[in-house]
Amino acid sequence: MTHTESRDGMLAPDLALERACESFAAVFGDGRLTLEQLRRNLDDMMLESVIAEDVSVEKIVIGGVDALRVAAGPTVDDNVLVWFHGGGYVMGSPHGYRHAAAALSRALGSVVVLPDYRLAPEHPFPAALEDAAAVVDALVAQYGSEHTAVGGDSAGGGLTVSVLVDARDRGATLPAVAVAVSPLADFTASGASVATNRDTDPVITERSLGMLAATYLRKNDRATPLASPVFADLTNLPPILLLASGSEILLDDAVRIHRAVETAGGASTLSVYPNTCHAWTLFTDFLPQARDGVDEIARFIGKVLP
């Protein structure tokens, strides 16, 4: 153990954040990488974390969609958390998110399901939403809405909100509670934090948002509510927890969703974390703020699910 590392493997906060930012930087490289390389790099970053021996990972099919079922520890309760991975709708995979799901499962004491929703450009909008909705519908039917939570980070956080809006509009039964970490919820990049945090976000840029929008949405309006849910009607949704970094350009996506839910009479909790980066809850093996975020998620869900 070095002088910068605690007994539980945590680095000193400043060094841990530097490592997380460097990990993201390594994914994107010089900005000229192919999508295939970006996808490999993101999974490689995620797979650097070792999964504990008491974690089970099982391939399943839910609602016709491939997924992974992740459970940490010898026993789990009767609840399920559906977690949508990040990656801007063009990258990311359940395989890469196994460690992140294991951390959530351990904190919750519940099963975590990682849907392998279709990605752009091979499958543009609304393919991801269709897959996400099919998985949530099937798990709500299997576990019961009162035992089902849904969440995600980055694009997965935006997808979480879109799934809730879509389910409500279809008259489907909604899950009991939701969580969105650093949600990508506005492809028009109209949030004030896009400008104010331009120099403090090492992960996402306004340019990258434009590229993701063009790839995922193609000719669809970037303000389409089911792709950019900051523009959606957010009435009659379950309680939602929104986590965001105070220095990321997507901060205002979370802030606007929070305000819209509250204005609509719903229950929303917004937690803005200082001194961290976009989607920081991925780094629970060395980043103290990540463990704090996962613990907050577990407490929030635990207050709603039996």
TrEMBL record:
Signal peptide range: none
Keyword presence, Hydrolase: yes
Ranges of residues in domain Alpha/beta hydrolase fold-3: 81-281
Pfam families in alphabetical order: Abhydrolase_3 (PF07859)
The organism's place on the tree of life at top rank: Bacteria
Keyword annotations of the record: Hydrolase
SUPFAM superfamilies: alpha/beta-Hydrolases
InterPro entries tied to this protein: AB_hydrolase_3 (IPR013094), AB_hydrolase_fold (IPR029058), GDXG_lipolytic_enzyme (IPR050300)
Gene Ontology MF term list: hydrolase activity
Family label: Belongs to the 'GDXG' lipolytic enzyme family.
Name of this protein: Alpha/beta hydrolase
Species name: Rhodococcus zopfii
Lineage: Bacteria, Bacillati, Actinomycetota, Actinomycetes, Mycobacteriales
